[in-house]
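Support request, please re-run this one:
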Amino acid sequence: MTSLERPRPQSIREVFVTFSLLAIQGFGGVLAFIEREMVDKKKWLTRSEFIEEWAVARTMPGPPALNIAVIVGSRYFGWRGAVAAVVGMFAMPSVIVLILAVAYTFFGHYPEVIAALRGMGAVAAGLITATGIKLLSGLKGNVLGPVLCAILGIASFVGTALLQWRMTYVLVGLGGIGCVIAYLRLKNAAVKDKQ
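Re-run finished. Output below.
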């Protein structure tokens, strides 16, 4: 299926509605919901495209979920699509957060509420872990190969989770190494193709 035959949003309104619905589902992290919606349900992106776009979104300043909304919206409708996606990501969640903030001032001291919020943290961690495992299949055709991808992934985990390095250092350091190696491999493949 070529990119012209692949499903795409039919209107800016569809972009707005899609990201509004994603945003209100994404308590504790919207990555799992964005990946499932963009790749599995709507098929606006392939898994490989999603991984590439997510990598770009993670390196840009600001929340990655918002950055991916801008990337996807602008991919199909330019700046208007980007604005629709961002407004969609903010509108309903802002209203819900304001309502929850007011409710929390009245009920936040109850042990049941405190326990429920702690339980939500475990669910969010599970969603992020499951999505990470699911995204591994998109690395099959990566130019770095499975071994180097695994090494960089493990090094990233060790750096952030165990050694408590700043995310910026991991992105610039290990991400830079991955970019240089990928560039060199693609360059060598282009040279071989010319011969």
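Residues 157 and 163 are 9 Å apart (CA to CA). The two ends are 30 Å apart (CA to CA).
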